[in-house]
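Action item from last week, closing it out:
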Amino acid sequence: IFPFTVLIYTIYRFIVTSFILKKLSNYVPEKNRHKFIHRGFDCSHYIISSIIGTLAFLQRPYFHCPFYYLDCGKYSECTGEKLICSNLEKIYFILFASYYISDILYIKTNNQIGIMIFHHFVTIGMIFCCVIVARPVLGLSVMLLHDCGDSFLYLGKVTNYLGLKSQADFLMVSFAISFFYLRIFGCATIIKLIFTEQLEQPHHKGLYLFARILFCGLYCCHIVWGYEIISSVIKILHGKEIIRDTRSNDGDKKENIKDE
């Protein structure tokens, strides 16, 4: 069923970007239209995905894990021979993976193509490994902490293209704060747990090790982007730059906080 959902999502993305967002882009300055179309779709995806992910976690005892993983060791254990999770969590898995796989077709809309391809590879690989080794809370937590932070980022981009500078600045600052808490601190606590606690893996032990290595690769991407965010903030505070988008390919320099 998964290849079918990826195909459906890819078609859905094509329709939204080619017809709905392309038409709406007529209301933004021409130089921002290309970015508005693609970042607008990213914005809608991350908001919808964050809502679904939050609802999936809401009634679960590990609801707090994406935001504070230090005491989630008991929830990170293997659920047995097969993955055990709710139907809504399964939907969230499928939506998240379908977006990342379909996004490969649109990777050229970003400037950082190399690191984005690497990021997508390790993210998709890690999520599928979590499914196979039956550790849903680990995979779901990484997914939701990604989606929540990126919702601020892409909403900030869209509001900037619409000329709402104050709102865009507020959202970009919110993204930077959430990035360092969720991606830097949050992911570091997950790495500490999966490498230090003795969590028994009854099957696919080699694959579980591979999943942890992939997660370390993902964290390296976060370190790179975190450094770029700090560098950008320092330049902004010194008045050397204004906020500009480094991932869009039209060369317009109006946003400066990096994203992944």
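Closing note: The radius of gyration is 18 Å.
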